[in-house]
Each structure stands twice: as C-alpha cells, then as structure tokens.
Amino acid sequence: MNPPNFVILYVDSPERSGAFYGALLGHQPVEASPTFVLFVLDGGFKLGLWSRHTVEPAAAAAGGGAELVFALDTPDAVDAAHEDWAGRGLNILQRPTDMDFGRTFVALDPDNHRLRVYWLKEAGQ
Fold first, then answer.
1. Is the pLDDT reported for residue 60 higher than 90?
2. How far apart (Å, rounded) are the C-alpha atoms in residues 123 and 75?
3. Alpha-carbon distance 84 to 71, whole Å?
C-alpha cells in the first residue's frame, strides 16, 4: 500500500478556508468550487477543504480532533512562525513551548482545526 499523501478537512466555508490556507501556505488552490478547495503543496502533499454541509457520507466530526503538523528546522524558526501567525491574527492555542520532543506551538484555523508547528530536537539535546 502507498503511504497517505492527502488530507481532507471538513470546513464551514471552503471559500473562506481556501483564502486562509492560501495566505498561510503561500500557494494558490489547483481546484476551487463552492463545496471543495484543493491545494497541492511542495512534494505532492494534497490538502483538501470540503464543505462539512455537503460531504458524503455526512461527517459527525468537527475541527479540533486532529492536527495538521508543520516541521521546522530550528527552535528560532518555530518562534518566528509563531510571531508571523499571531501577527496575521491566528488564534494561538499554545504559545511556543519546550516539550520533551522539542519546541512547539499550536494555532487554530477558522474551523478550529489545530495547526501544530514544531522543531524536533535530536536525542541527547
């Protein structure tokens, strides 16, 4: 079996969420309709935004039950991303924090999907 390469988030408004992710990721969608927006990111990873009102079969889950995760190369890059995202008005759920795995923070998208940014420390650091 091939590894996963596509995540779909159920959103209230694909147009609003598409604009949010377009600005955040610096990419334009390759597909956009009133019910679905698709981004193809570097490396081929796909992010779909599907209207929670039209997805079939209907989904019961809402935002906040999982995380979309972004790995960065240094702890300073995590802090810089936090400053950028907070400056853009993203709701910050967790400020930059050192945890057992490295440095991280968590923000929310317009539908309360969690967006985690992290730097993974090497063993022994």
1. no
2. 15
3. 16
